[in-house]
Amino acid sequence: MYKITQYENIKSTRVIDILSIEEVLKIMKDGNESLPFIKMAREFGKGSSQYDMIKENNLITFRYNFIFKDSAANKNIIAPTGLIYIDVDSDSVVPESEYVYASWKSLSNMGYGLLVKVDNLSVDNFKYVYKEVSNLIGVESDKNASKPIQQTVLSYDSNLYYNSDSITYSYVEPVKASPAINLKKERGYLSTNDTFIEQIPNTKVRFNNINDYFKDTDDAYIVFREEKELVCNPFVPRKVELGKRNSILFIYFSQIVALNPSIHKTYLKLLGDSININVMKPKLLDNEINRVIKSVFYMLGNGTLKMICNQERRILFNPSIKMEFKGKMKIVNRELGEMKSEATKAIIYEVIEDWDFVQRGKITQNKVAELSTYSIATIKRYWHHFKAYIKDLNDDYRKHNT
């Protein structure tokens, strides 16, 4: 049974109760003593001061992602609830999906709240799981709600949807495995191979979307200096046990097809057979693999299949330019070293720029090291970048204080 923490209102982080999810859904479906406030807020409309006042003061809230001790904060997380909350901030209809555990109209009546059962959710993987689950369902979710401590104001929806038999999304740590067609022979089983695949049409298969970044450039690599880039790089774990086999195969197949919309079903079946032999414990039945393939192509046909970007990359190398591993590592080390250097200089500059001469006197290396938390050796290494500027600041300070 899933347990959910309850709070007095949107401004409070103190846990006041722990309810079962069934109790929470019943309150939203049937209403309680707060129903008049909900109806009043909807009459005033989202954006009005009256709506905001009711939302902030008169309605309890819930946090669906994790159970907290005493108050809602990442450091107070006891355990995941087994659910993830997805906020859909639009008036579009929620697509039919076997992953949706529950859905309801939001307080504003202009969006939806969704719950999906999920395994292995954590603070570290939360943003990725939130995005992937949103894509699997086929909704444009609110990125601002992509937080482990996200709270949700009590709503009311007499048509609330509930499916206790929904599919559980299982997060698997991204231990990169080789593409299924290249898996080695194991225990006498033959994996599929490129020679065999050549007999099938549409065999130029992409296993990631990195080549998309180099369509209009001949550069050997691209560096993302501000934020890491999310790319689509589907994987299968080295071992998949009972209870997760169908969902993991579905996720993997959906991304292979999203990357290759014209892929042949026979090719996908060969991939499935190879994965089944090498990683499924126990192996799936043949009709189960075919059923997963059918579901993926059904989504492709109705336009709900979307590419999921699941891997962060700081540097991408052009797949069409051959480069030895040592050469790539030399570039990676140089580029990351430069970025680290720029970040260090930026922090030192902020310390100098905000210097309090009244309290600290003139700027020295030891004082900068103390405020920046860098070692004195690091400060000395970068000191020449700021030496002239610091001299001007110190001279100006002495001139006005002597």
Describe how the helices and strands are arranged.
Layout: E1 3-7, E2 15-20, H1 21-30, H2 35-44, H3 49-57, E3 61-63, E4 66-68, E5 77-80, E6 83-88, E7 100-105, E8 112-119, H4 126-137, E9 152-153, E10 161-162, E11 169-170, H5 194-197, E12 221-223, E13 229-231, E14 240-241, H6 245-259, H7 265-279, E15 280-281, H8 286-302, E16 311-313, E17 315-317, H9 325-353, H10 357-360, H11 365-372, H12 376-382, H13 387-399
Helix pairs in contact: 2-3, 6-8, 7-8, 11-12
Structural class: alpha+beta
Order of helices and strands: EEHHHEEEEEEHEEEHEEEHHEHEEHHHHH
In round numbers, the mean pLDDT is: 84
- Uncertain residue ranges: 175-202
Portion in helices: 25-40%
What portion of residues belong to β-strands?
Answer: 15-25%
- Summed up, the helix count is 13
Q: List the domain count as a whole number.
A: 3
Give the biggest beta sheet.
5 strands, mixed
What does the overall shape look like?
flat
Distance between the termini: 73 Å
Give Rg in angstroms: 27 Å
How many β-strand stretches?
17
